Amino acid sequence: MVISFPSAGGADTVTMVGSATGTSLAGAYTDSLGDSGNWTASTAIHPFGPPPGVYDYSGTFNSTLNPLLIAPTISIELGQDASSHVSSNLAGGATIMHSLCISSLTLSGQAIGDAFSLTDAANKVSIIALPSGDSFTFSYKFEPTAPSCAGDFGRGVVTINSSAFDY
After folding, report:
1. I need a surface site. Which of 8, 22, 32, 147 has the fewest CB within 10 A?
2. What pLDDT is recorded for position 52?
3. CA–CA dist 134, 118 (Å, integer)
């Protein structure tokens, strides 16, 4: 598989080679900027089901540039985008408390196994979340032209909130 990413120094092309064993994939990668390593993939533990199925997440995050003494909290509701016929397309929203510059997000994005990539076009923010045990670590970045939190970036952790209806 060959993937190309735009960057300030020109396109970075990543070449991945691997094989499948059961429900797992593994292999090695190299990129045009000199990086290399190994990669693995497996079946999603928490796949997004058809609408109206959603996952509720909660956790905290903080700015790398301007960390707050009390970390903002985030609650996310995320599921398959009901207006899309592609099962990996996601839609949802987030409520943020204790942040000095943002209180809510309208999210859209893609599921990649258990990981997900989200954006809020109006607030000009992107989020990448990766599974880490029973939680998800995420990075966020506001564009320099964002209407609030301009240029801010940081990290956080969320967990899936289970309910009595989960089994």
Report:
1. 8
2. 73
3. 20
- Judge if the upstream peptide bond of residue 47 is cis by omega within 30 degrees of 0: no
Please state the domain count of the chain. 2
Q: Does pLDDT of 56 surpass 70?
A: yes
Range of the domain at 102: 54-160
Torsions phi, psi for 111 (to 5 deg): -95, 135
Band of the pLDDT at 140, cuts 50, 70, 90?
very high
Measured distance CA(110)–CA(97) in Å, rounded: 25
What is the side-by-side order of every strand in the sheet holding 12-21? 2-5, 12-21, 24-31, 36-42
Same domain, 21 and 72: no
Query: 26 with 59, same domain?
Result: no
CATH code for the domain in which residue 76 is found? 2.40.160.90
Alpha-carbon span 131 to 123, nearest angstrom: 25
pLDDT digits (tens, 9 = 90+) for 14-41: 889 999 888 788 999 998 888 899 988 8
| pLDDT, position 120 | 97
**Residue count (the chain):** 167
Q: Which two tokens stand for residue 62?
A: 């903080």
- Return the DSSP state at 122: T
